[in-house]
Write a structure and sequence with these properties.
single chain; 6-stranded mixed sheet
Length: 197
């Protein structure tokens, strides 16, 4: 209920008029979202089929992660979010982004990164998937990468024995010289996780 939803976008995804009546129950709303989910392929599926992908690198402490640009809308400077009662601990609150209420996820808590935080307030990476908009609180933006498929390793959870239901890393990206490894953030899995609340 805290996700910023653009009714026109959702209506378009569902193939109905934006003036159509709202779902009468939570079950009806979840069924409508599931229908959209079935029609739109998962971001990981698209990335696995592409010969290369564009990623934006960012830091949480000393650890670098990447997020696919296909899911990104923009990067903005930190502004204090409004804390919501009963929100999960990894949700910092919501921000007003050009009139749209946008929930903010604290990636440090969600990914259980325990190294020392960098100084400063940080940034928000704003992502959109299936008509839903949310922000990821990060500490520092690094650079943009153009990554060939051979430098991306998928199915990390099966290799490491981690359950896909609780893992928010969909793969590992290797730097061009092979000296560094970066986790590829699964925006779809984070959206699914937030929707459970």
């Amino acid at each position: 209920k805290y996700l910023g939803v653009d009714n026109a976008d959702v209506a378009k995804d569902l193939g109905v008029s934006a003036d159509a009546p709202a779902p009468e129950s939570r079950a009806a709303a979840e069924a409508a979202y599931a229908a959209v989910k079935e029609e739109e392929p998962a971001l990981e599926v698209i990335l696995k089929q592409a010969p290369e992908a564009q990623m934006v690198g960012f830091f949480i402490g000393e650890q670098e992660f990447v997020v696919p640009t296909m899911a990104m809308q923009e990067v903005i400077r930190y502004t204090p979010p409004v804390r919501l009662p009963m929100a999960p601990p990894n949700v910092a609150g919501v921000i007003n982004l050009r009139g749209k209420v946008t929930p903010v996820v604290i990636l440090r808590k969600l990914l259980d990164v325990r190294n020392k935080p960098l100084e400063g307030d940080g940034f928000f990476i704003i992502c959109r998937r299936r008509g839903l908009q949310l922000g990821f609180l990060i500490e520092r933006v690094h650079t943009m990468y153009r990554v060939p498929q051979k430098n991306m390793d998928w199915g990390v959870e099966s290799q490491l024995g981690i359950s896909a239901e609780i893992d928010f890393i969909s793969g590992i990206m290797k730097s061009e010289d092979g000296s560094r490894l970066m986790g590829i953030i699964s925006v779809d899995r984070i959206v699914e996780h937030i929707l459970r609340y």
